[in-house]
Amino acid sequence: MNADASSAADTITFTRPGTVTLTQGQLEISRTSGPVTIDGGGNAVAVSGGGTSRVFEVDGGVTATLTGLTIENGNAVSSGGGGGVFVAGGMATITDATITDNTAGGTGGGGGVLVGGGMATITDTTLTDNTAGNGGGGGVAVDGGTATITDTTLTSNTAGDGGGVDDVSGAVAITGSTLADNHADNGYGGGVEVENGTVTITDTTITGNTANYGGGVDDFAGATITDSTVTGNTASSDGSGVLCQLSFPGDSMDIAGSIVSGNTGGKDLSDSEGFFGFTDGGYNLFGTAVGGTATGDVSSDTPGLAPLGDYGGPTRTMAILPGSPALDAGNPADSSPDQRGVFVQNQTRDIGAFESRGFTLTPAASGTPQSAPVGTAFAQPLAVAVAADDPGLTDLSGGVVMFAAPATGATAALSATSVTLTSTDSASVTATANGAVGSYRATASAGGNPAYTAAFHLTNDNDEAPSLVVTTTADIVDPTDGLTSLREALTYADTFTTGTPTITFDPTVFDGAQMPIILGGTQLEITNTTVPVTIDGTANGAAGVTVSGSDTSRVFQVDGGVTTALTGLTIEDGDATSGGGVYVAGTVTITDGTITGNTASFSGGGVEVLSGGAATITDSTITGNITDDTGGGVEVDGGSVTITGSTLSDNHADNGEGGGVCVFGGSATITDTTITNNTADDGGGVDVELGGAWSRSPTPSLATPPVMTVVACASTVGRPQSPTAPSPATPPAATAAACTTTSG
Fold it and tell me: Which CATH architecture has domain 359-461?
């Protein structure tokens, strides 16, 4: 192809789009008198070798430009190389072109382009699915000339060595380009092979390439890799990302500001095959097995990159995700743009070929502001939506959001400090207020980077969350101390309108060695008439609980209409007019308890059961209680009591009746119970009067020795109901027959 013989520039254009299939061999550009341009009009025209010949040859001394063309189906099987384009010695510029499905057979190189001399400039071009057989450079091979490859994509090309690019000899500069999914079958350098020349790789992404050695780059002679990303490549033998095989003094391989991490098969960067190692220029992100030691080097096997995609710019790139160790970790002195032409953001360059524009983190409105009582969880999670500021980056899966709260003072415990994003691009944690009152700020950030942060404004209130678990032996009501006293738990239980509130005790506090709960001069009053309330001193592993009136107040009062159960409690040292330990106007069940050391100035030293009240006492001990009048242990004053499997001992009615039990106008059923060593003026064990009734079981007999033992029972006359009630005109006779002392 000579165009014309003048020295003026010639441009060949096409009148209509379509495919030109060569039938008479290659198109040879041989005109040396002036530059020649072949313009396909933006890939509207394809020139095909038809699978039988090379497409273009640029002869020595020629200046040629191929632009806007698709160069396809060239075949240089018999002509040594350059299936699509062979630059034999001139100056060739290939721009805005697609070079695809070309073949260089045999040992010929450059399935897409072979530079055999002269200079080739390849810009804004895609080389894909080209093959160099057993030769080198499925996409581009350089053997004696120079090649400058800029803003170009080389993908899915195959060769024996250098699936994407093979530098046999000469100089190659690759800038702003992407080499992806190229293959060196049974050979070296899936992406780039450097045999004897020099290669400079800048702002370039090399990913998905495969080879036996050097999945991304294999270097025998000398390469410089700067501000580039080498990840996701595979080597079956060694050097999954980069293999350095320098063999001669003076050869050097320099890597700076680049990612060489996340590759598969051997170390990400290996120099085990050569005699001279690489030079670490610093600010690199290497896999942990590499362990770079220069200034600014970072080690991680997880580079934190999005899949290869269109995130702006002329070529596909791998965007940086939130939490990537490459984010803002590059050389502070490097102000050059990235592969897409994006300049430094946030003052410091990122490591690799991609400069992130950053991320916007938006907290969920429900999570801020909010407050919670000290020691409790906040009602709403701390949730944040994350969006990238780079175009096309809509899926941040694999990115990391870091959550943080103040280390001291009012703060919150977080359910996690690191959350990996999924396709929802949102992250959340739960927060629990600590014991300090105050307001503070929790944060969510892109991998801990303070430049990309969302804030949650939280307050720890001085109001404790109500609880049924007692965590202190102190008898206090303090909504700011983070503790729950028995009195506070009872107050909370009395608010329930459904369910069965059960008060339990923290077993780490109530472990058997704790001090008793000593009341501060005021009884514990159970008032809930809607649902039954239980106090269980042995639930959840607690070792039992002692509640003391400290001789200044009654211990428990069960109001009329209340149903309650007291289990595993020791009730001691209460003091009142009636019912020093427990005063029952409602219904109470006492199980596995001890009622001891309580006093009453009138009646019921241990327990007083009023008219309308009922007490069931099982497997319990009532001992050492005192009254100045009646019912040293238990006084039944018109109510009812059932005592089973229990012991009443050493109780005293100093000036009255019923040292153990006094039944006055009510009823008592006592089964399998020991009543012993109780004293009174009348009825040391049991006294029944004023229409009261009692029964005991089993009935004593010599044939069947009873379990119950009654000591010193006596018939007595009645007594007034209270210190101020009038005496009956005719004191009634006691209904109890003379008791028989038995033992069993």
Answer: Sandwich (2.60)
